């Protein structure tokens, strides 16, 4: 009898194990499930913080305001010095598209680290240059580093937020991250002047190597965001897909042109000091300009959250154009306050937000690089054209010509505003985008975390 009871007991215990173990394991899995969102949120905090420091250190170049003077000192010619600056722009434009494809295929973090290492090499070339040859190699390397970061770093930030389903926070985080550029420029300009006065121009350049080395250490700590979809195509097919994506998306086409036109109008920064020098001290004007831009970047997220990215871009560009024309047509002691881009930070983050929403996940950096390439070409054309205008009719006429180019972006921005779609949809399995193509997450491809 006891043996029978013992057998029954063993059967009951076995049944309990069979029924409770699966539920016990399932319970443990359910409790561990929130770990993934927590890890994604932690990655957002980490990458946003590191990107801010990366931008600050990368633009803390104390030689910035005196770069032409330093090049002229080394080469013995201002013409040669100016040619080096032009070659830096051209090299950046030449590398734009290849580096964008590299970012999409090999990852954001690796591309960011590569750019930081190349930038250190460029600064070592500047610091040790004794003639034109090494300076030429250095400016080409800086152009390559700039191209590596150009479409990549914004894509890294957006993809990081996308991995945590927080892409709607892009304006706020992008504004804070990009504001660090302006803070670095303001502080570096002031510090560089003191160091140059106490020691020499070369000492300023040598000390500027240190922040670039720190950039490498910061980049190494960045986490790779999730990869959205496998990249099985070859390089030419990937580039062709990005071009078709821009051509088929009317909003993206318009925004790419707006971005290129805004960049080309920044050639005014090379001529504005000539106009300002007779009105205010140039150093004070630059510091004030960087301070205003810093504030604009910091508040851009809140403004875009309230009025929307398209309205912010449209009214920011309209305000800048009106303010600049008034400053040029009726010059007063207050003209330097208006001249430049008082709403630059707001418009830039609004522009980035609209572009990132339209870029496809698999060609995000490539599409950004194609837009940058178009902007560089227009920049070169506008710079040469307004130089001819300045020689023939004066600096005010040249700056007004730049404003005329910038005005072309207004109807394009208005058309984006007028035809603004609803909330952006994720890309589907083919990389296309559309509000009427809402697919479940499983159709996005082999989404996999990459650490």
Which characteristics define this entry?
mainly alpha
What can you see in these coordinates?
Mean pLDDT is 80; it is low at 11-35 and 422-451. The protein has 20 helices and no strands. The longest helix is centred in the N-terminal third of the chain and has 31 residues, at 2-32. The protein has helices spanning 2-32, 35-59, 67-75, 78-106, 108-128, 132-150, 152-163, 170-198, 201-207, 209-220, 235-248, 250-264, 268-276, 282-307, 309-329, 335-338, 344-358, 364-393, 395-407, 409-418.
Give a short overview.
The chain is mainly alpha-helical and 451 residues long. It is built from 20 helices and no strands.
- What is the succession of H and E elements? HHHHHHHHHHHHHHHHHHHH
Q: Approximately what portion of the residues adopt beta-strand conformation?
A: under 5%
Give the helix/strand class: mainly alpha
CA-based shape: globular
Please, what is the average pLDDT?
80
As a whole number of angstroms, the C-alpha radius of gyration is: 26 Å
Give the low-confidence spans.
11-35, 422-451
Q: How many E strands?
A: 0
Oligomer: single chain
What is the straight-line distance between the termini? 61 Å
Helix content bin: over 70%
The profile of the biggest β sheet is: none
> How many H/I helical runs?
20
